[in-house]
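Two proteins follow. First one:
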Amino acid sequence: MKFNEWDDILTDEFRKDYFINLAKYLKNEYRAHTIYPKKEDIFNALKYTSYNNVKAVIIGQDPYHGEGQAHGLCFSVKKGVTPPPSLVNIFKEIKDDVGIDNTKSHGELTKWAEDGVLLLNTVLTVREGQANSHKGIGWETFTDSIISHLNTRGKPIVFLLWGNNAKAKANLITNPNHKILTAAHPSPLSAFNGFFGCRHFSKTNEFLRKNGIEEIDWSIS
């Protein structure tokens, strides 16, 4: 299982007791329950976006827990699956902010990941129909380590923290080279409390441009 540079960067993490226990727990979970995403998709965020290629990080909570939705990238669903409400709101803000209309396309964000957007959930697995069911089993330690490694990188990164769970990660981002953008979560329950109008997509590209880094194309097709 190779994650480009991530494989070497996280070697020590995979050997720690908490991760070994996490792996054992997940082995039993996949046997006893329907778990999302599929095993081979758990680490897709790392597979698609190498450490050196990260331009921006979007932090989600845990995977979608409906059939066929989660595939290892936060907020993303595979082509053919109806985009969930939070993703619909993300597309609405993109259209209002940078004029790109993704609403008539699909909900798969792989193109963003390949363009340098690390789409990282805080928790990487979930039981079917049970949101937050894998909270507290060790994933948070693992994903905090990923964020901490990115924090040490000299090349600037934009961290987009939407909602309280994501904002709690701000204390891991101390490197002044990086940019932190915070807003309400794009879910229908909170999007009108500060996500709509946040203009994070244009602000991200403005920061990248000022630092001599190629901007992100926020279209998905």
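Second one, unrelated to the first:
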Amino acid sequence: MRYLTAGESHGPQLTTIIEGVPAGLYITKEDIDYELQRRQKGHGRGRRMQIEKDQARITSGVRHGRSLGSPIALVVENNDWKHWTKIMGSEPITAEEESEMKRQISRPRPGHADLNGAIKYGHRDMRNVLERSSARETTVRVAAGAVAKKILSQLGIQVAGHVLEIGGVKAEKTNYESIEDLKKVTEESPVRCYDEEAGRKMMDAIDEAKANGDSIGGIVEVIVEGVPVGVGSYVHYDRKLDSKLAAAVLSINAFKGVEFGIGFEAARKNGSEVHDEIIWDEEKGYTRATNRLGGLEGGMTTGMPIVVRGVMKPIPTLYKPLKSVDIETKEPFTASIERSDSCAVPAASVVAEAVVAWEIAKAIVEQFGVDQMDRIAENVEKMRKLAREF
């Protein structure tokens, strides 16, 4: 499976084309819209989320609620486009119109793709860069992730994400009873945090940053339960599932770090405190006494829950902007200000769910796939049975 996305932040629409989804997957517009609405929520979001009411149009690849096996095309329209038709239109304009064009950007924002992208592609107006490098693009990545989640759900695999830390405020209560319990609590939290007290402190930290014209980041965690043993491979670097998951998480805008299980804490522990002892269970077969490695060994799944975390830096668009240099005059100025969030960590946890779900669904379809969902389900169940009886 693979997908491509297209579209600019203030263009007419965002589009994704998904190829390789098996035939027979039950998928509806409502399934995708639910995930898109989750992405728009969260304490600290800016005015753009009040303007946009993201909904998907399925324009190909699905008939009567079932995937056909052909490419699936999804479109999300930008409501704000009506205010940007002249500025972001595809039709040619005159030199005079270009000179009068508002919102041209010559002052790059530190921490963004503005300057590097302008140098790479030769753009004097850095709006050509920021419109595509904007996190608005994650809208259709979440749409693609919704399709992946439906594949996993049909195979008895569940995905959940939550926020562990925002602006230095850490969740202390993280031991949830079940993945359903985790989902229920975090869906009701404005910051998607399982720890209610920590969640209130996180909101206070977001409000303080906003009042100061600043932004804050945090840490999100994604858990995946029900993945059979042996998904991925140890035989080559580019087939290791943990490397694919790491790349997917780091591809999310503003993410700068990723870890599995106890992650970087392993550097400060002895081997006996890091590795998970193997035990035998009559009902489950092989399992682990602990899950410090986050459900992955040797680039493959162990059958334990997959646990992956991502670190999101503070959003670099600030209402108290940092110093920069105007590329036309080379004079120092404060950077351009674009409408933005003070904190997007809660929304980023939904994006993280989407990209993790996609990589796992992709790996399973490649390993067990025969182009039909019911036959993939049969093959996955055979693998689960094999692992229990091995």
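SUMMARY FIELD: Residues 2-389 form a domain with the Chorismate synthase, AroC fold fold (CATH 3.60.150.10). The first helix runs from residue 29 to 40.
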